[in-house]
Amino acid sequence: MKSIMVPQSFIHPLFYQEGDVVSSKSDLFYYDMMALLNEREERPWERGSETPFKVFQNEKEEMRELFRQRKKEDVKELMKSSIGQFITFLFWMNHSPVPGFQNFSDHVASLKIKPFNVTERLFFIMQKPNQYVSYMQLDELFTEANKQAKVNAIIKRK
Description:
This protein is mostly helical. It has six helices and two strands. InterPro entries: YpoC.
């Protein structure tokens, strides 16, 4: 694996700080950053990968239990990861890499397949990632996006 400095467009207080490095395919937005830097890596969005949705499904119950136990600090890293997975899923189901966070609202608005009011809902979640209501909203966004991705796939097959 190649280690790279996180590009400026991916710097966001929730995910990466100035000077952070990514070096693993499991790092949030790894493939998207590599595409931005024109590195030769896989391009999972070309096939509309469901991997981010599956990752969330695997972490969902653990987060629910941490919220139930009121362990907000323990849930913060899982929520951060899940929010990143949702952003990835949102762009990949549109067969596009995540472009980063500069002009993020415009990029989301330009997507053809997306849940209703996704920008507002996502910004709420990103502002308050360790609140239970954010977890519930994220779960709903994943559910809606997954349904839309499946409907779109069926339509394209016809």
